[in-house]
Amino acid sequence: MAKSMESSRKESILIKYAIFSRLLVLFLTVLWRSFLQPYDTSAALNPPCLHHREDSPPPLLVANTVSKTLENSVVWDSVYFLRITECGYEYEQTYAFLPLLPFFISLLSRTVFAPLVPLIGFRAVMVLSGYVVSNLAFVFAAIYLFRVSVMILKDTEASFKASVIFCFNPASIFYSSIYSESLYALFSIGGVYHLLSGTSNVAVIWFALSGCARSNGILNAGYICFQTMHRAYEALYLKRRVCLCVQVLVTGFLRCVCICLPFVAFQAYGYYNLCHRHKLDELRPWCKAKVPLLYNFIQSHYWGVGFLRYFQFKQLPNFLLASPILSLAVCSIVSYMKTRPELFMSLGFQATEKEKRSSARLYSLKDALEPNVITSSNEGKSDIRQRKLSRKKDVTVSTNAAEKSNSAEASGYFSADVFPFVVHLGLMAATAFFIMHVQVATRFLSASPPLYWFASHLIASPKHSKWGYLIWSYCAAYILLGTLLFSNFYPFT
């Protein structure tokens, strides 16, 4: 009861931090924008849609200043998101931007903020809606991160510190702009929360929505794969129930399909619009491929994304710009590997019994079984005997590993529950470094919980007290640099 009250109190304080951080970023954006002339002012131009849409009435003279201020704040990818919201997917390259953010902007613009259209115009209302969506989503993402952290770390103070660092993370400018980072973070972290809470079907919906915000949302299916793998092992080898194992595998497979389905459906939508009913000589190259992947073609053709394609000497400044976040990611992964090598070597199968039965539900079948399929007491006794025999066989191999796990278990970041998150972070970091435009790594990795858990661990450790100053300095510097450069249409991650 006391822990629950303390957690609620910390959560209410965290909400204040999250709101303050968004107001701070918006204030700095307006400040830098008023001092400097933007590098590119063409974003305010808004040519008519290719397909005729009803023109909104011009804004009133009184609100004209507000309208121009909002429209002039649109920079970089925000231009694409607003164009898609207003005109739909007109050009091939616009299909690189997934539809969830435009959907929410359109929804707010035509409902909550519709009365403002006669005052400031429809485009300005869309901009306002975009800011509201991104900033609200960020606040809820911070709340979910705290709740997930409490479940995983089992340390309210460490969870609170990690969540506060997230509130002031280096990619903060993108979470307060008309970008999809906030929605991706909300549905990814929220999906993890529901998965850990035992409502796996709800988690699947949230993960699927994260894949509608950003393409890397489909990697969240990895959490389902990890959970399915361990549950199938328990059902087959510990409980000796083949039917239950098949049930777990089929359920896990269907859940992964559901997570990937929205992204695949969007690719099919693009194929239908751009390739269907066109003559063979008019088709784009990707339309003729055996597996026509629109998203991969766009990233490669228009943005030069590909394996090692960014490894050029002229891109050295961008590698330096991404080096802090990549270094933190590598340090967090290596530190975990050194402390829990047995988990990496066994894909988590050498976690202790206590860890497997933890409240996180990543390893155990306890919330997967319905009352009518729970084993009888005789079967339970048989399972216990089988486990005792297997423990005796493996005692010489796993004693040292178990002792090491128990010692590490006291430290929240090194618990077995963190393992799948570290693997997920490793895949994301490798993708950012070897395939993507490397400077994007700052925002690409910014929604990964292990970064903040590891940072919180370093700050709390007396041996690494200097790391606290370094981490906070890094966050502050990138918030200042990001609001200065990004808001004025200069390159920043």
Automatic annotation (TrEMBL):
It is a multi-pass membrane protein. The chain crosses the membrane at residues 12-32, 120-146, 158-178, 248-272, 318-337, 421-446, 467-490. Its EC number is 2.4.1.-. GO terms for molecular function: glycosyltransferase activity. Its main location: endoplasmic reticulum. GO terms for cellular component: endoplasmic reticulum membrane. It holds the Pfam family Mannosyl_trans2. It is found in: Endoplasmic reticulum membrane. Keywords: Endoplasmic reticulum, Glycosyltransferase, GPI-anchor biosynthesis, Membrane, Transferase, Transmembrane, Transmembrane helix. Pathway: Glycolipid biosynthesis; glycosylphosphatidylinositol-anchor biosynthesis. One of its GO terms (biological process) is GPI anchor biosynthetic process. Belongs to the PIGV family. Mannosyltransferase involved in glycosylphosphatidylinositol-anchor biosynthesis. This is GPI mannosyltransferase 2. It comes from Eruca vesicaria subsp. sativa. The lineage of its organism: Eukaryota, Viridiplantae, Streptophyta, Embryophyta, Tracheophyta.
